[in-house]
Write a structure and sequence with these properties.
homodimer; 349 residues; alpha/beta; Isopropylmalate Dehydrogenase; 12 strands; 38% helix; 21% strand; binds 3-isopropylmalic acid
Chain lengths: 349, 349
Amino acid sequence: RSMATSARKSLTIGLIPADGIGKEVIPAARTAIEAVGSDLPPTRFVDLIAGFETFTRTGVALPEETVESLQNECDCALFGSVSSPSKKVVGYSSPIVALRKKLDLYANIRPVLSVSPNPGESSAVDMIVVRENTECLYIKQEQQTIGEHGKEARATRLITERASSRIGRMAYELAKARPRKHLTIIHKSNVLSVTDGLFRESVRALHEKYPEVTVAEQLVDSAVYRLFREPQIYDVMVAPNLYGDILSDAAAALVGSLGVVPSVNAGDNFVMGEPVHGSAPDIFGQNIANPIASIRSAALMLRHLGYMKGADRIDLAVDSVVRDGQLLTPDLGGKAKTSEVVEAIVKKI
Amino acid sequence: RSMATSARKSLTIGLIPADGIGKEVIPAARTAIEAVGSDLPPTRFVDLIAGFETFTRTGVALPEETVESLQNECDCALFGSVSSPSKKVVGYSSPIVALRKKLDLYANIRPVLSVSPNPGESSAVDMIVVRENTECLYIKQEQQTIGEHGKEARATRLITERASSRIGRMAYELAKARPRKHLTIIHKSNVLSVTDGLFRESVRALHEKYPEVTVAEQLVDSAVYRLFREPQIYDVMVAPNLYGDILSDAAAALVGSLGVVPSVNAGDNFVMGEPVHGSAPDIFGQNIANPIASIRSAALMLRHLGYMKGADRIDLAVDSVVRDGQLLTPDLGGKAKTSEVVEAIVKKI
Ligand SMILES: CC(C)[C@H](C(=O)O)[C@@H](O)C(=O)O
Ligand SMILES: CC(C)[C@H](C(=O)O)[C@@H](O)C(=O)O
């Protein structure tokens, strides 16, 4: 599913490194995009701020100007990673969750692929986690009250037919375009018969429009178990927000490192690339963060916008550096610096 | 944490095989308990019904008589596994979730241990998932309404200070009794700052009473990732209900099979053993289900009641059969029948 590229004479990309290693890997992704050159229209980057550091400095985690620039000026964006406060901080709320919501980026698409298959050989792990990105517990409707036995907190989990159908449609479209054309619906309707029941039914109801896709379903607990035991049974998985969050991290563990797993947050009118990893404060500033997840997120974003050639050039360059095995960051067992990996990738682009 | 055994002149154990392979593995657990003989007081078993099959036959998944027998007649119980309907079935609601609630079995304790360490050698995976068992989304407060864009469903997630503190206390007690004395608190307070914030704070607040325990915390997505990458970092994990459900299945994948992972549902006055696996309708009736999870659940239940000697005899017998490697069910790569494994274990008890 790609947006029309024809009308676009230039490309404006918002860059939101946010916290920690986001500040190392987003510049890396920019460098990779710049290397693509003439396979993209003239490209302009806009530096934008958000994150916990922005919050501690300005009192706001997601400044209005950042949102406005994305809405009015940018065609797409790349987001880095946010640090979570280690204690509860009054007034702080995750900017990435807010951005997904404000820009209605309802689909979080996370392809997970084994790191180093030989060229042409099919990969042991090759799946896409399609995660609903706007509702579930992520609507953040929470209250605390005082009950008979102390504090009581409640959160609302929202599942709508509309959001379930549109994420379902996205998942069927992605499945249809893949060789195996297989979709697994993830839910926990043995406990949440109403909310997860609605998710399941809404996705199931679309099946008649996609007869070429085979459909299975699994309870989320059992899905995580089987993901580790038999990853090859999965092709495309579609899940409500929180299950998708957990499943994509679980799948990342299968391919060796979160440092290589890209994603896009996609809506009907905007797309934002985002590495699946976090801000990793423990390794920040050492020039050893793996830039691959961000660089692949850039490729995925370009692909989503219809720039297949540019995306392919980035992905093939990354594949080749990974297969080479000479320049890998520590998370993949190597000793290379972030900048060395970026340089090698840029050379191959 | 064990309940006083002194006052007990006899032991009455409720057996609720429920659905599918539950009907094969609960009898196996009974046989193992019977083999313990004089290390237990005179023991009586009460056969009780519940489950999806019970529902289709009687219209009720958890009959009143079953609950009454457990409350009035039994000292403890063993529960098998329930099948989930493949479509939404009006009036059906999971009996295991209801039982945990009705008997106030607030702690689901799931030790996960590598299957076959040599005797004396420390195990690669050796952790306990301590799962809150009465609230979170499992309170099943759900409604469906019709909104502007179709159906909308909402569920309430409840986290209380009281439930978080009592599960926290259980987790610290368990951690304190282990060599490593390490506790990891699982939450997602970067999104659910109120509910998971309360869980985290409530468990953290107990730390001053257990200075010998070291405490870490992790976001649930990252915890699942690290569970697969570095399982050795975990000792005891404490989690709200749903995260605990997912984490215990994830941990089970690490030790080769859900077929070996036991649990108890424990309250202050009652304990119910339960294998972590499901009802596995695909293998039911073939005499190939792994009885070890249920047999170990029986041992765990006895241990919780204070019958250490009986519990040890069962566990050592299972260890020895597993280490032997001659009689393993298909989930562990063997060809043995359920009944052969039970026989071998009983011989060693
Ligand atoms: C940082 C956090 C709010 C976020 C999420 O839970 O969505 C992250 O885990 C992710 O997967 O992008
Ligand atoms: C059967 C189901 C309701 C149950 C749960 O989610 O608790 C099961 O997955 C478990 O872990 O015991």
